[in-house]
Amino acid sequence: MEDEIHVISMLVRNRSGVLSRVAGVFGRLGYNIESLCVAEMTNPKISRITLVSRANADFTEKIKKQLDRLVDVVEVTELTQRHSIQKEMMLLGIYMNSENREEIMQAIAMFGCKIVSIRQNYCIIENVGNRGETETILAYFEPMGIEELARTGMIALQQHKNGNDDEQ
Q: What pLDDT sits at residue 79?
């Protein structure tokens, strides 16, 4: 059985050690966390943890049962691509010269990226997009010599809180 990508969103009490206990559940069950993003909500007592793991189909039930046992976990939801908005941000540092400058500038425009810093021979490019878009941009710029790279990991929100799948 082939492993699938699972995006889990959790609301947790914003307390010391909560992230460690959540990560411990994944480790005990033998799952790797590929991507992790944690941030406070508008209520500073609650944080949202969004994580990505690759696992088989019964992953969600197993992990949800274990996470629900943790005292500080308020809610656990698996977010599917179809019913959620999933994005990640990437900063990409690349050297430019007279030979590649025009191609880099055209690629930035073509991919809808943003230049956040530029010097005579170096620029930092920002991209916000889904995982596939990010991977495509990385693959395009890699032969040009990516000097530095930083990615946020995935953030995601469920699209339909009212349960009506017909609304877009």
A: 93
